[in-house]
Amino acid sequence: MPQTASVRALNPFLTLTRFPLDDTAVRAPDHRWPGRTLPVFWVALLPARAYVRRVLDITRSPGAMPRQPVFNVPGVVTALAAAMAVIHLVRTYVLSEGADLEILALFSFVPGRYDAEAALALPGGIGADIWTFVTYALLHANWIHLGVNLIWMLAFATPVARRFGPARFLAFFAVTAAVGAFAHLITHRDAMVPMIGASAAIAGLMAAAVRFAFAPGGSLSGRRGPLPDHMPAQGLGEAFRDPRVLGFMGVWIAANLLFGVGVTMPGAEDGEVAWQAHLGGFFAGLLLFSFFDPVGRRLPREKTAA
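Structure tokens predicted for Rhomboid-like protein:
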């Protein structure tokens, strides 16, 4: 299908939808993304702030001076964040309006793509049916959306990447993004509104961090060990019996459900949040963590001084 035809076919549902705040994101052909849009979901995630402070100072130990957070971010996390920033930079300042619409059509997640008739309006064919389950997480609505997501990703991806290593980390990011997209698909069948944003995968990383952050010796255990990111994780049953884990999960899920019933912040009344995708990514991260975890229940070997 020629590029102009696919863009023209995409335009009708782009012009008739509202500007969402977070993962469900659509852009009208004659507007740039509104810079004042605020991703309320992440702003509302106040229970995680203590964790963020601790994890960004992850090298702290008794008698040791804390390092600057920027030097502690694993290379794979930095590379992923840079890729998202470069993609948004190119979309915003390099591509034409029509070319950017084509990018959205090819790489955002559109539930209606899986309807035989509606799929004719979208480019990419079978390949896009598959890759958009992940590629939507690399696209963002505006610089605020990207910036806030990157802050949260750096916080939660840092300990998970240290624990998993680059290959496992990227696979985990992709899987949780895909499960988030699937959760959005089954709750928005035939919807022709593109969904973009890394929040579902970030929710998965958050859930993964919860599995070991509260474990003995973890960063939020109260008795931080010398290698908090490599301490044996809690089993799933143990995690569900831990009141700290349950409290963290309860507040996080409640925040998403509030967005589900239409609660918004002042000035953000026209926004939408893909809360089903967030829940899908979170529970995928929580339940699938053990399949990616190389530490498991083994105690890490402590390095001895020479």
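The domain at 11-58+68-292 is CATH 1.20.1540.10 (Rhomboid-like fold).
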